[in-house]
Amino acid sequence: MKRAFIIATGTELLLGNTADTNSDFIARQLIQAGIKVIGRIIVGDQQEEIMAAFSLGTQLADIIISSGGLGPTRDDLTKETACEVMGVELEIIEEEAVKLKEYFARRQRKMPASNIKQAMFPREAIILANRCGTAPGMYLYKDEKTLIVLPGPPHEMERMFLDEAEPLLREKLKLTDSRALSQVIKVFGPGESQVEEMLAEIIDDPRGCSLALLAEKGEIHIRITAEGTARQESQKILGEIRKRVIMAMGDNVYGYDDDTLISVVTGLLQDKGLILATAESCTGGYLSKMMTDLPGSSASFWGGAVTYDNTAKNKLINVKDDTINTYGAVSEETAREMAAGIKEVAGSDIAVAITGIAGPEGGSDTKPVGLVYIAYLSDGEEKVYQLRFNSHRKGNRILAVKSALDILRRHLQGR
Amino acid sequence: MKRAFIIATGTELLLGNTADTNSDFIARQLIQAGIKVIGRIIVGDQQEEIMAAFSLGTQLADIIISSGGLGPTRDDLTKETACEVMGVELEIIEEEAVKLKEYFARRQRKMPASNIKQAMFPREAIILANRCGTAPGMYLYKDEKTLIVLPGPPHEMERMFLDEAEPLLREKLKLTDSRALSQVIKVFGPGESQVEEMLAEIIDDPRGCSLALLAEKGEIHIRITAEGTARQESQKILGEIRKRVIMAMGDNVYGYDDDTLISVVTGLLQDKGLILATAESCTGGYLSKMMTDLPGSSASFWGGAVTYDNTAKNKLINVKDDTINTYGAVSEETAREMAAGIKEVAGSDIAVAITGIAGPEGGSDTKPVGLVYIAYLSDGEEKVYQLRFNSHRKGNRILAVKSALDILRRHLQGR
Which CATH class is domain A181-256? Predict the structure, then answer.
């Protein structure tokens, strides 16, 4: 099994406030390709430490992958240092210099002189195209070591890894996927210890699998990993445990692996040819923002009203002042009228409304912080849910949005 | 300034699914104590890699701090390996063996034989008490290197660091809080290489300061760090460079340190007693979501319309169908009517509207992906901005939202 060492460069990653998500991504991809990750390191932008990181990588591993430090400034030393450790020289590659000049010309900007270093590579390297920025990466095989140098911005790095680096790795190192198989089953509704209880029998007797629970902002992700003596056997034991987990969790399962509540709900709306409109108070547009995160969402999402101020509830979607005065802005009645109001204005098939108290201010004894009403309204069905969250403002808001999506999912699945 | 290297051991930390929060915590604490973190590494439970990590630490840094691998099993090799690298021998420390036996006796459990290794330490070490578990840590100073070994469970590690390790560090290394001072100046508008050119003179002659640029989704953060011989001197040199940076960046500076575009815009609105309403198409409520992220936003934010579908532009905020048919949904004219429409409905002081093509679909030759119009409208002023972003959907959306906030900021600051 090939062994990989992952390097991230960037002073900001050393401060303890910014997560090194690039190395997380690279680690997951490598493991999936059957490569063992034996270590990862973060260093700043000082040459001594960058050099030590690459030296350690070549000492411990077969594959060394770095992200960051490919920018045009003098702080950006990763490629130069990696090449020094590998004993190869950089030179200007004419083709890359032309591409770089074209990139700036297209944007009608003058190329700063320092950018030319982004066109410098060793002759021995394969240059990895950057479709989202100016800094290409590189792939170099020398002395039985594979070096892959990627840019720092996550979307540039991910695209380059998937489109350029991974296919090269698979081809050059003749990788086959790992024998181990895993699947994530995603659940919304019960809490972590509740899920643990529901799965107690399986956890006690996992029959060659391992189970791990990850709590993720109101969701629980159940990761099942099976490693048989061959891929086929892994498949079989994974399939059996998977079936038992799904049985135990019932309709709390909303999806698998890369599914998100948004992707599942959008898929259901599109399959059924239904259009959704939203009305949001305490979540301030968070639900509609998420509904439009995915491309193509216009096929099933009409839009909505962000009725943060009380007058907005009346002026945008005709909630009666009387209702707000009598029952309050955070009430079953107001939620119901918000949903009815936006559905009427939009002429949509379905409407969802959220009103609540996100906190930290605005709570009272009868209506505490974390109280949220979610109204679901379709042509044949109307229901208002009263929920109570115990988080801070940010947590209460995301829990309200996810709960609304889960309510949508359950209704659309006809439950 | 003392230099620290942080080590985490644990196979699960290499998979890309579990964050190394221990090292985050340790990094933040060290920085606060005036210690520079120069690198961090994660390795699994193999002795070769653990040894390489400690060797690298002693090579690069004055202080090496590890967490994890202090358990009773044969996988737990951190302390043994660290001691081998430092050239010290482990022996059973009678006092610790007694404590360990008492710990198990109190819980009426028989101590597994393997647990005795948790009572083994070098004579030269200071043993760090573990108030929450069985594995003590250690503090060792030898050959001008300080080694601190902490347990892996976060609550054990944090308690031990704060109660035991940090006071020792401060006492033995005579740390005072850092003499170094730093400030972040936050800029929106110019790109990274453009900022570097604008600051070229200062970067060439930073007079005792160091400057670092961090590009963060359309923003550039300029971190100035000054380290004089005393705090007062640091303050003086920081103040001078700060003034020059602000002068060079002009009205592109939107804030400092913990400021965000949202906090700055919300502050300006509240200071002036103005109310904002929004109309969003391609950003789908992202701007209103951000406007309501902060508590107390209801004082200056009314709400808005998410007019994702074209009919929503008409039905919610009275954009004329004629306008959309003649100029298109993504046009200066539609942006202007969206702002006018929401301002009229809301009766707000200010309105901002966003319409554009986020991608990846929907672009054309004349209206490419990334084209965005942002309209600003107040009682005395109206302006529509045409912008062009070169990112993917997610990037184009956040850039549109941040640009809208920056446009608001500049208008509110009377520029």
Answer: alpha beta
